[in-house]
Every structure is written in C-alpha cells, then in structure tokens.
Design goal:
Length: 139
C-alpha cells in the first residue's frame, strides 16, 4: 500500500528509506506500515520536538549485515506487511520524554531502549507478537 507522505508534516519517505542506499521504498520493492508512520507522527506531535529516524526500513541484505546488528525476524524488514519499526535518535532527557509518551499512547507493540555508548536510540514497532507487547533494553 502506497503512503501519501503529504499527510505527515514532519516526515518524508526518504527518512524511512533503507540506509544501505538500495532505495527499495523509492523503487516500490518494499513498503512501510501506514499505521507505524501515523503513530510516529502522533508521537512527534505530542513531544513537540524533532524525532530523528536513525533506522526504519531495512532490506534483507542490510539487516543481515553484521555491522547493522539486525535480528533475523526484525520488524524493520518488510516481510509482506511493510516495515513496522523505527529507531529514533533520542537520548537522555528527550529520550525519557519520548519513552513516556510512547508508553502512554499504548499503540506500540515493541519498545527497545539503547541509552549507553555513542549509539543512543529508542526502538518502536507495531509488529504483533504472540506473547503480547515487548519491552527490552539493548544494554
């Protein structure tokens, strides 16, 4: 399903594109979940500050690259329902604000936190899990 990016005033398709440069979104080889983009925009509206996207869609090759550190069943990979995950480049105080709003919204199925070292981010996804919602730390 194609997304009308004009409906999302703070985000563009290029921000959700695979970082390897394959341009799979642009080429129509992959999609992003409209639900995910809608919720990330709602989160941005609640926070009132920019939410930089470090990672969203990953092609399988990029996800499988050891440098990426992708999980084999990553919600970042389009397996037929579109990319269902974003990693937002937020840390410290902003990270806590984003996390609180994301929890309050109750729409994210997976929330992962990385707030140590040089790569600090908050993972959010809408991938349904048989065991229910998941919350984890990368530390």
């Amino acid at each position: 399903m194609s997304i009308n990016w004009g409906l999302f005033r703070n985000f563009e398709q290029s921000e959700y594109e695979c970082k390897c440069g394959c341009r799979s979104l642009e080429k129509g080889e992959a999609t992003v979940s409209v639900e995910l983009v809608k919720y990330v925009q709602e989160l941005r509206d609640k926070c009132g500050f920019a939410l930089p996207i470090n990672s969203a869609l990953r092609c399988k090759k990029h996800n499988d690259d050891p440098k990426t550190g992708g999980h084999p069943t990553s919600a970042h990979v389009d397996t037929g329902q579109g990319c269902m995950a974003v990693d937002l480049g937020v840390d410290r105080e902003k990270g806590r604000i984003v996390l609180q709003y994301a929890l309050d919204m109750g729409v994210f199925e997976g929330i992962g936190i990385q707030q140590r070292g040089s790569s600090r981010f908050l993972h959010l996804d809408v991938k349904k899990r048989s065991g229910g919602k998941a919350f984890w730390s990368y530390a």
